[in-house]
Amino acid sequence: MLKYLYCFCAIFRYFVSNEKSLSENEAQAGGIPGKFFRSDFSKPAEKDGAVQDRRRGGKDMNWTDEQREAITVRDSDILVSAAAGSGKTAVLTERIKQLILRDGISVDEMLVVTFSNAAAAEMKEKILKSIGQEIRGLTGGGERQELTAEQKKENHRKAEFLRVQLRKAHTADISTFHKFSMNIIRRYFYLTDIDADFSICDESRRQILQAEALEELMDERFASGGEDFTEFLRNYSGVRSEERVREMILSVYRFIMSMPDPFQWLRDACAALGAGEEEFRRSPVWQYIADRMRRSVEEAGELAEKVCELTEHLPSIVSKAQKDREQISALLRSMEEEFSAEAVFKGIENVRFQRFTASKDDKEDFAEIKDLVKKVRDQMKKSLEDVRKNFFPIPEAEMLARMNATKEPAEYLCGLTEEFHRRFSEKKREKNLVDFNDIEHIALKILRHPEAAEEYQRHFKAIFVDEYQDSSILQETLIQRISRGDNVYMVGDVKQSIYKFRLAEPEIFIGKYNSFAAGPRKEGLPEGEGRRIDLNRNFRCKGNIIRCVNGIFSHVMDRTRGGIDYDENAALKKGVRYEGELDRKVSLHLVDSSGIDETSDFEDIIDEEIAELEKTELEARIAAKIAAERIGQQIYDCKAEKIRTVGPSDIAVLLRGTRGVADIYAEALKREGIASYIDAGEGYFETMEIEVFMNLLRVIDNRRRDVPLISVLRSPIFGMTVSDLIGIRLAHPSGSYSEAFLDSEQPKSRAACEKLDRWRLKSKYMPLEDFLWMLMRESGYMEYASALPGGDRRAANLRALVDKAVAYSGSQGKGLFGFVRYVEALSRNKVATGQSSKGEGAQNTVRIMTIHKSKGLEFPVVIVGGLGRRFNRDKNTSSVIMQKDFGLGLRFADADHNCYAKTIVQNVIEMKKNEERLAEEMRILYVALTRAMDELVLTASMKDLEKELERFALGLRGNAGDAGCFLDWILPNLQEAGIELIRHDRRSMSGEIRQTEEEIESFRNRLERGFSGEGEREDLFRLISGRFSFRYPYDEDVFSKSKFTVSELNRMARGLQNGGKPEPAPGSGGPQLVSETEETEVAGRELSDISSARRSEGEVSKEMQLSFLDLFHSPELLEGGDLSAALDEKIRLIQLAEKKGEEEDGAAGYAARSSGGSGNSSDSCESAVPSFLRGEAELTAAVRGTIMHKVMELIPFREDLQEPEVLKFVESLVEKNILSLREAETVSAAQISAFFRTEIGKRACRADWLKREWPFTLKKRREELVSEAQDEAAAEMLNRELPPELLIQGIIDCCFADAQGIVIIDYKTDTVDWKRKEAAYEEIRRRYRNQISIYRDVVKKAFDTDKIEMKIFLMRTGEMIAL
After folding, report:
1. At 954, is the pLDDT very low, low, confident or very high (cuts 50, 70, 90)?
2. Less CB within 10 Å around the terminal CB: N or C of the chain?
3. What is the DSSP letter of 896?
4. How far is CA 892 from the centre of its chain?
5. Does an H or E element contain 676, and which?
């Protein structure tokens, strides 16, 4: 039935949307002339190269010819290749505005897709701003000439249309791919097979569900014991476990989910492994092999030509070099005539390189270049040798046979992957979850229905895709399904495609870049032909930076390396008008890291230090000194059109990665007196504070994990020294280290064991969030981390870990073991979790960030570090590898003969991926160099600097495709790039560092022994003495309570309203009323009394323990006994019950003695254990009240909601694991249904605005509460107990607004004596008047109104009471 309802709604929406579509004729009927859309703008509005734009206070915006074309061209798909700093966002926004103004296309008839929510919000803001400025221009804003009445009328009509666009823009499709996909799913829900109220599965939860599905799959296969599974494990798993097979399944699954039809692609890839010789020669794999063979031989030919050039002045050598060149040329010609692997190999074997022996006349000259010539010839020979080595190390027929042999195991792997997908999908379905991959796949599945795709094709008259170079295959397929073939506008720059690891496919952009027609439309081209527009005028960088970028990339970037040829169309053109001395040259600061071991006079002094000195530290010191020099220097601000000085926030340090590096740069800047801000988007789980604290959690969960145990013992949490750890092992040399620790009699070991025991016990009954907070406090680790350098960030990281615990618990996760596993899954799968930046800011600081993070940003001064670091070229160690064009490569495995080898497909895919990685590194360098506006500084270190520079000076650039670091692309092109080379001596830098370290050590020693004042600098002495003798002037207020809950204040007021006497007990003649939280409130008053007094640090620690006593509800807590002793005894009893299973009567005897009772059976040991440890909790009044509140928070507000509907809803909460069956049984459907029958309940259902469970924090002064006191005693106590200012926290159960005003509703489950009903109601009003009064203050501040009604709904009676 639900499906039919969705179907009806979708059809209804379809007709409504079509009715509302604004056509030209309909616009005329509505009073908007048709000429507004076309005739008025039949010609471009530009004049003398300028398009009118009011964004700059009425000034003309000077568009380039290419920008103007990108704005005005119509009737075809358009690819805009927008280089860095070319103003693509401005062009995109202007085109959207012109489509609205000139073409009459409504903003809700456009689709604008970006790749982040922030980018989408920014785009929407710019569109709104642009439309708003146009409205102001039409209605008289700015300087205007006199208009005729007809012109004014016309402008008024246009302005009205634009105002409609402003309203529509807020709901227009300007979003990310995921959000657009969600919109498709919502619109065509009836075409899917998922539940209506699904939730989004975040990445971390997805990892957990995948692990569970994989575990079940492997368990089922092991249990079945099939021969196929056993054989697959023998060939592809490790000796000790099946972990490799698990990784293979996940690897394949992650890859194929980026494909439009995942399992069809996988089945086709498996089938291709069985190809015969002829079929294989037609495959993309073979085409790649042939192309690579040709390129390798061509490279050898180029190197042979270089040898000829080097030896042309040596007659006895050049003749031999020419023979080598001729042999390679003959090989190339034969490959062109008839290509086959055998022929190529035979041709290579027939090449006989000459032996270079110089004549007597040439011998001396040849000696000067002999080493250089040898290097070039070795590279030439290697190019030819790699042809066989890389592709056919064994005969072609045997390689093909091995590939065919992998078809069967590949199909079995395919089956495992499909079964994993089924189980994983089922788990998501059970929890009603949909992950991000599902969203796009479901949307694509919907768009495969012709009616859905056709509707979007009719609806969207213009489609815009920003950052098109980062589109995935799946996203491209989505766009193609809804496009018309002439209405897609794609903007991007393949030179800035740096997200291959996120499944971006720059090849999509490259394919269209090469196939779309460039330049203005030519006569005779068919309508709808794709067009390419190059925007390469850079309005960001000054001239010397432009020269640097072009000088490097014109020599290293081409179609095989980087994706496109860096030709005239791709090269940057200067758009900044400034010419002058403030256009600074690009500089490269190089540290030669070789020659350190040479004998010198300083060897004994600095060798040890140099041995420990990292290259990064040297580069960081250079960067810090440069930053210090630049601060205060002048730059010309092209945007402000004035000269100004550089501040710290104008400088950015860009690094390939920040992990383990950024802190070194921050420390170097700190030594120069410069504040820095690490804008890290990675490495959260690898930070010291998180690693140590997670190890503590691992040890609490399982003390038999040696590595985490040693880490925690050595940490400040337990403070053991290396000698202590060695002593533990020496005392127990056999067994694991954890066993030695548990058996150790050392005092430190015993103390650590006791703490771990206590924490382990608390982890079982405390909520996870509370347990982590308690652990951070009791261990002192939060304070320790906060005191370290960068303490604010470290503390924020620890707080973020607690937030993750809340998220884990909120997704039905339970227990410490599950949380540890959850975090390990996040870390293992590299789920994006950046370090917290809380407590730090980027204002007036130098920013340190990754190059990826800097994309889309610009800075006046950019320092790029680590350019000499080697690229990460880890070889593929997995047995399986995939590539979208080449399919799947599986290792050949024959366990019976112990034969394992890579197949031809594996080799080809690995080579292709290495090429792609290298191309991406090149594009990363392009992004780094194009972030600077005024000055670009490069830093690096390398060995044998002089030799490398000499080689490049001779014109030996090397093969750009063999680069191992960024320097390999920069150094050969220093001259063309106009880069100034500045060398730094490592030895002198090390000496400076040593001097600085000695000064720091000297100062530390003086601090330790104390300043004598004699011979010391007087000002320094006063400064140090003053700081170390400082005492906080408000020391006594440290322990004052400043934050109160509404319930605490209400309890205080209730006690005092009775004159300080206890409230009437049941049966004492007063109204018979039992509060829903009576028992908890009594314990709360005890704790409040303790917290109001001044306490020592030890007493504060006790209070932390006492905050959990209300879990036990035992008599001693309510009679003012020794609470700390009571807790210790309770913990002891829990330990006994857990470990030894003591009989109940012994514990009952203790309970009787401790409470002064008679020792009846109800006071047994079992009753001392929290109910949720026993698994048979008795639901207290407080718990039942909480359950009712939860139901009222979640239940849909509909008038006259009947009991059966309430029961059905409660059942759904059980199905979703929000309530347990036991908890659901306590819910009274009659009580909830009664709420919706009240007049206030009906108003809430019809309300214009409704908020449930509304949390708030309210700041109030003590005087305000004192003035509201009911009597003098209350005023006196409040004045004594409360601080001058306090924060009040609470949650409003329900608040709504309608035409009659604002209503506050508070739900209460108090028991009422029906015999004294009116008196009981009056008592309720008195009891909760102060609480509701605070709620009133909150709502009054929020809505700035006094028209507020305050109601209490009594669940047990079903009546609404007015206050």
Report:
1. low
2. N
3. G
4. 38
5. strand 676-679
